[in-house]
UniProtKB/TrEMBL annotation:
Protein name: Uncharacterized protein
Annotated InterPro entries: ARPC5, ARPC5_sf
GO biological process: Arp2/3 complex-mediated actin nucleation; regulation of actin filament polymerization
Presence of the UniProt keyword Nucleotide-binding in the record: no
Any one of the GO CC terms: Arp2/3 protein complex
Organism: Euplotes crassus
Subcellular location: Cytoplasm, Cytoskeleton
Pfam families for this protein: P16-Arc
Predominant location category: cytoplasm
Domain of life, source organism: Eukaryota
Similarity comment: Belongs to the ARPC5 family.
UniProt entry keywords in alphabetical sequence: Cytoplasm, Cytoskeleton
Length: 147
């Protein structure tokens, strides 16, 4: 049985509702700011809005991820990948690659928000932890992260 436009629309609405609920939880945790940065990043990297049509949600998630990531020390990156696990570590790497892309577009807001040395060090750590497959996954699985 072929899916109708209504079936597809209903599915998209369910996905959007789930993402909005997760987003509200992330906003609350981010505002409280009481968690350790690694724990907060783990929460922020749950239910990412890759499939959302809400650009504002995507942009705010991007900002929360990087404002939290910036609090991590370079020496703690290996521990961060262990805390996050492979999938969330790769998702964070996707955000780093998106940041590099946005800087190339001269996006001043992103340039001020991002710690590029931290992103480069994180790229090295994830390569050591997960091998080149981790970097390959970022290219093949990268969704619409920001715009």
């Amino acid at each position: 049985m072929e899916k109708t436009g209504k079936d597809k629309s209903d599915k998209e609405k369910k996905i959007e509702a789930k993402l909005e609920k997760a987003f509200a939880k992330k906003q609350e945790a981010f505002r409280k700011g009481s968690s350790e940065p690694a724990d907060l990043l783990s929460l922020l990297l749950d239910d990412l809005p890759f499939k959302s049509t809400n650009k504002s949600m995507k942009m705010e998630t991007f900002a929360m991820v990087f404002k939290t990531f910036k609090k991590i020390k370079v020496g703690d990156l290996t521990q961060l990948t262990e805390t996050l696990g492979e999938d969330k570590s790769i998702d964070l790497l996707k955000y780093c690659f998106k940041a590099f892309e946005l800087v190339h577009r001269q996006d001043q807001d992103v340039i001020e928000m991002i710690s590029f040395p931290l992103c480069l060090n994180y790229l090295n750590v994830t390569s050591e932890q997960f091998g080149s497959i981790g970097i390959a996954r970022t290219g093949f699985e990268r969704g619409d992260l920001y715009d």
